[in-house]
Specification:
This protein is of the alpha/beta class and 345 residues long. Helices cover 40% and strands 17% of the residues. It has helices at residues 3-15, 19-26, 40-51, 62-76, 130-140, 159-174, 192-206, 229-233, 242-253, 288-300, 325-341; strands spanning 85-90, 97-102, 110-116, 143-147, 180-190, 214-218, 277-284, 305-314. It is globular and about 55 Å long.
Length: 345
């Protein structure tokens, strides 16, 4: 048995302890300014991670931070569900990797989710979010096309936004080659991926091109100036910290203006004409306020929006399905959001 397998088993054992024992490990109850209570298992996970001195991503060289991201995801994930087919592709004319997930038994012309992973534009890849894509494909009964967009610092802004727009343009013409309906494509992503998803919609709209059927924005980064109140309230202690965000943005933006609308969609002149959106935020997340402000701004511009805050959870819950019961339940609700964007009950 490998050390990572032992760590995973030990962590699961700890997180399944009776609540009184888990509370002793987690520490006193934590509430945010809204009065929401931090999920007990999540608090215990944060406490155990601190005691084990698991390196924070921003303290590592970039290459090690990327590997740490994959290792952490494996530690708190579940065994990936089988797919009928998982195809490795390249965007034609480029070296950009894509991964197509087909859960099997889908009707012809099934919907497709074009998915951009999170990771602060610096870490994350097809493997770090493989489990999430498989779960979405299986439970939402759709194709998923994941994009391994270029990362900073090797490829700073606007490389990632250019990659997502190029893939969206290709999908419009070739979704049927994947067995999907090109008119039933939702674009989505978590964190940095949510940023890229909504920017793709803005850029397509501004170019006078078709936009996706919908947007699935999972705790998205909307304002890279980090000016909203939740950045101060959750600056430390809740997984995504201010030092980590600064690390990501330093690499991603370099000297670019964080108020450029292709970096921070919050600064777009208009959001009218964007596709319907499902926005999911977390109660203990520095990005919470900007995600909610974005949802309200879309709604005010006449864009149909569903907004839900998972009040007890932290940034990154999408990848915690195997360790945190509340995260698994939130992911089930997320599947419902996606199905509604597809026009399904």
């Amino acid at each position: 048995m490998t050390s990572s397998t032992l760590q995973r088993a030990a962590l699961r054992f700890i997180l399944r302890l009776p609540k009184p024992l888990l509370r002793r490990i987690a520490g006193p109850i934590v509430r945010n300014a809204r009065g929401d209570t931090l999920d007990l298992q999540t608090q215990a996970l944060l406490s155990v991670s601190l005691r084990l001195k698991i390196p924070r991503l921003h303290t590592l060289p970039v290459a090690q931070a990327r590997q740490q991201t994959i290792d952490d995801t494996a530690l708190i994930g579940i065994d990936p569900p089988a797919m009928a087919a998982v195809h490795a592709l390249r965007l034609p004319g480029t070296n950009l990797p894509l991964r197509h997930y087909d859960p099997g038994d889908l009707p012809a012309g099934a919907p497709l989710l074009l998915f951009a992973h999170g990771g602060g534009f610096v870490v994350g890849d097809l493997d770090s979010h493989d489990l999430s894509c498989r779960l979405l494909a299986r439970d939402a009964r759709c194709h998923v096309l994941a994009v391994d967009y270029r990362l900073a610092p090797e490829h700073p802004f606007p490389a990632a936004t250019d990659d997502l727009l190029a893939v969206w343009r290709w999908v419009q013409q070739h979704a049927d080659q994947l067995g999907a309906d090109p008119k039933r494509v939702v674009i989505g992503g978590d964190s940095a991926g949510g940023n890229l998803a909504t920017i793709t919609c803005l850029r397509a709209r501004d170019a006078g091109e078709p936009v996706p059927l919908g947007q699935l924005l999972i705790y998205p980064g909307i304002d890279l100036t980090c000016a909203m109140t939740s950045h101060t309230e959750f600056a430390r202690g809740f997984f995504l910290e201010d030092a980590m965000i600064a690390f990501f943005l330093q690499h991603y933006l370099g000297g670019a203006d964080p108020t450029h609308p292709n970096a921070s969609p919050w600064f777009a002149d208009s959001v009218a004409g964007l596709p319907p959106a499902a926005v999911i935020t977390c109660g203990f997340d520095p990005l919470r306020d900007e995600g909610e402000a974005w949802a309200h701004r879309l709604r005010d511009a006449g864009v149909p929006v569903s907004l839900r805050c998972e009040p007890a959870l932290v940034h990154g819950f999408m990848n915690m399905d195997g360790a945190i019961d509340a995260a698994a339940a939130a992911n089930t609700r997320l599947v419902g959001d996606l199905r509604r964007l597809f026009g399904e009950a």
